[in-house]
Design goal:
binds 1,3-dihydroxyacetonephosphate, about 260 residues, 12 helices, 8 strands
Length: about 260
């Protein structure tokens, strides 16, 4: 598989952190640090920060993302935000299926599929998260779990639409724990996701699909993770909240 066919994507997932003023300030700090990036740079911020973040990032290479969107266009869904509203605001990216949504908010493989569909229909780029729990890895069913999550999320997605999907492999046991998957463990799963994409869409599509790793990626371990043949970037939580750390991960894609 030829890694040069893919432009890495380094995305920060700020989760439930930073108010609009803090968001604008962090983007301002990031601007000079990532302006020469050879990868795509994305910051996925809380909904309430989107406006400020978009404004701060205007005219730069920093793209803004949301952390979820609903599957319906409108209606009685208290607390939810439809994909079209994000698009209207000028948001290019949205994270779908993050393990924290699956763990705490009842997100299932089918709601992930439906949210992905809505996001694609609205013209958003999707960062689709998959990953196994610790118990699943211990039971040796990581491949089955990740294949199922990915396959169901992509149900109905065409080869053309796949170009607007970045897949993020995030082992749940590595998220926020400081326990990073080894480069070999991460690459093994990224490769099996790529093999699944090849089964579903053919080798050319698989070669083009950006597959990130996420889970305690930081400025220290990013280099060796990003050097692996099937790791095309990262989805970064904690380390994305500090401009220097996040920028160092962006720079690590240049190796
Ligand atoms: P951490 O980098 O804090 O482990 O979070 C990873 C993550 O969940 C990104 O979506």
């Amino acid at each position: 598989m030829n890694k040069s066919l893919r432009k890495p994507v380094i995305a920060g997932n700020w989760k439930m952190n930073n108010n609009p003023a803090q968001a604008a300030a962090l983007i301002e700090q990031l601007k000079p640090l990532v302006k020469d990036a050879s990868c795509e740079v994305v910051a996925c911020v809380p909904y309430i920060d989107l406006h400020a973040a978009l404004k701060a990032a205007e005219g730069t290479n920093i793209q803004i993302g949301a952390q979820n969107c609903h599957w319906a266009a409108s209606g009685a869904f208290t607390g939810e935000i439809p994909a079209a509203m994000l698009k209207e605001l000028g948001v290019p990216y949205v994270i779908i299926g993050h393990s924290e949504r699956r763990q705490y908010f009842g997100e299932t493989d089918l709601t992930v599929r439906d949210r992905t569909r809505a996001a694609l229909d609205a013209g958003l780029k999707v960062i689709l998260c998959v990953g196994e729990l610790k118990e699943q890895r211990l039971r040796n069913i990581t491949a089955e779990v990740v294949r199922m999550q990915t396959k169901l999320a992509l149900e109905g997605v065409t080869e053309k639409e796949l170009e607007n999907i970045v897949i993020a492999y995030e082992p749940v046991w590595a998220i926020g724990t400081g326990l990073t998957a080894t480069p070999e463990q991460a690459n093994e799963v990224n490769l099996l996701i790529r093999q699944l994409i090849a089964e579903l869409y053919g080798k050319a599509a698989a070669d083009k699909t950006v597959i990130q790793y996420g889970g305690s990626m930081n400025e220290k371990n990013a280099g060796e993770l990003l050097a692996m043949p099937d790791i095309d970037g990262g989805l970064i939580g904690g380390a994305s909240l500090a401009a220097e750390k996040f920028a160092a991960i962006v720079t690590a894609t240049k190796q």
